[in-house]
Amino acid sequence: xxxxxxxxxxxxxxxxxxxxxxxxxxxxxxxxxxxxxxxxxxxxxxxxxxxxxxxxxxxxxxxxxxxxxxxxxxxxxxxxxxxxxxxxxxxxxxxxxxxxxxxxxxxxxxxxxxxxxxxxxxxxxxxxxxxxxxxxxxxxxxxxxxxxxxxxxxxxxxxxxxxxxxxxxxxxxxxxxxxxxxxxxxxxxxxxxxxxxxxxxxxxxxxxxxxxxxxxxxxxxxxxxxxxxxxxxxxxxxxxxxxxxxxxxxxxxxxxxxxxxxxxxxxxxxxxxxxxxxxxxxxxxxxxxxxxxxxxxxxxxxxxxxxxxxxxxxxxxxxxxxxxxxxxxxxxxxxxxxxxxxxxxxxxxxxxxxxxxxxxxxxxxxx
Amino acid sequence: xxxxxxxxxxxxxxxxxxxxxxxxxxxxxxxxxxxxxxxxxxxxxxxxxxxxxxxxxxxxxxxxxxxxxxxxxxxxxxxxxxxxxxxxxxxxxxxxxxxxxxxxxxxxxxxxxxxxxxxxxxxxxxxxxxxxxxxxxxxxxxxxxxxxxxxxxxxxxxxxxxxxxxxxxxxxxxxxxxxxxxxxxxxxxxxxxxxxxxxxxxxxxxxxxxxxxxxxxxxxxxxxxxxxxxxxxxxxxxxxxxxxxxxxxxxxxxxxxxxxxxxxxxxxxxxxxxxxxxxxxxxxxxxxxxxxxxxxxxxxxxxxxxxxxxxxxxxxxxxxxxxxxxxxxxxxxxxxxxxxxxxxxxxxxxxxxxx
Lengths: 367, 355
Fold this sequence. Notes:
The structure holds two protein chains of two kinds. Chain A is 35% helix and 20% strand.
């Protein structure tokens, strides 16, 4: 391409110098008046250069806090951050805000959930893109404008030289998200966090935005962490998926492995909650009963146990460790994994108990 | 590129371009015209804005306007009603400026006046007659001229005080709202203490203890009183905007605090700030009027509206116009500023809502 955009070619020499991001036992706790909220509680993963990690979980599972914590965007006050974050061989977890500022934008960038709020309503789109170009890459005004136009056209915005002088409210939601992506990509980051980038968008636009992210990622050889609550979003677009629950990674596997051989009942439940094309219309969606765990006083044992179909007394007593499955890179936290004899046994036992209870209550009602 | 154009305007223009005939184009255009809701400021706004512009222009151009000097007194008769004719003595020959068809009676009257006043003794050899459109005050000074010159003081104090209040109050508010924590507690604590004083009393105290009553002192006094409300307004808006995601987005791009404040927060809080400023000018003008009425504004003979109202106070029964003219001008100006400010604010509100 003849564009003047800075791509990750610069980073090529160090390409095989280990993974881009190594997160080890990252904990992010908030001090609140109710007690300590364990929003992220011991998360470990590595992300290779140019790879995509999907982080999946329902609201309150800590996935957004995880990405902000890695980027060091959380307030320092009343936040306890432990563990190690190694970016490109550097330990950045104890970087000051000034040190992080050199990394933000040029090394790591973030695309936010809602393009309605993540663009400044009173600044022209062009200004919002050229801002960081001029700051990080020290371009002059004309050069930055030229680059901004190229960026806008690369994210699929028609007539970029006209759009550059428009305000965010003159664009549709999908266009705005394209602009936020252009802004995030402006300085050629090596790592892009996409925090539910399609949640606020129309379903028809979602696929376009995801494809755009994927295309840009491939072209720029950029690593991406795609945070979402929708397994469908990450299915074909990630190399690896981490499923989060209650601030922990409960299952992590290469994408094909996860979909073929999921072990964690929570992953299964998330999967079942996606409407299926082959099921007849008016089929009730399966929901995960109950609520996400209290992060101030997490339950003893497995955090998902109170909502789990497989749960056994052991689950309420002992927290399952993160163990490796039969495939390489597949880890999960469960005593009675899905699709194993233990799991089958647990499911059967629970069914029997439920049947007995139903019978008993029916009998009690009759008497 | 397979991008669906989701912008209705783009759709419209491409559709219009596709239609071959000029008639179709015309239809499309008229449709577009009818469908567009134009934000209107309204007739009242333009009248108000017109008045403010008029006052500002006359104040600005006062030295070049064909007005009497504001401190020049007519000796006979001293107090004049509106439109009353009077004679002005000159030490030069005004005839060159005057109409050559002046009547004999007029010249005679004029001579009498000059003699009555011993004008010749003072070197006043000529006279002309003029009409005081708005009358003259108890010292025989032209009220029109004094109102125009008084507008200078009012507007300078209004603009100056608001600028001072906006700069200091705005900075305090934006810093408190952005950094929060102890900075906020300390700054807003000081603001609360300032707010606890009755505004006019505080301004009075400042002017009283200043060693001169110059315009800067009055501006400082009224501006200082204006700092706390501005700080509170800007802080409240900053709190809202600094929580917005675009501020976080700017930080993820490596923007420093200073940059975030100046480029991201400031343009957003400036909108409500500006509409508040217009109303603030009105408030400052009234405050200056209050100080002037108490004789604590700019020293005489510089005319101020408040001072003129005070001058006419003793003659309310015989010559109400001495008080009413400056009072009316002040009321209309303040009303116009309030109305214009209000319209501007609602215009900005709609814009915000559309986001």
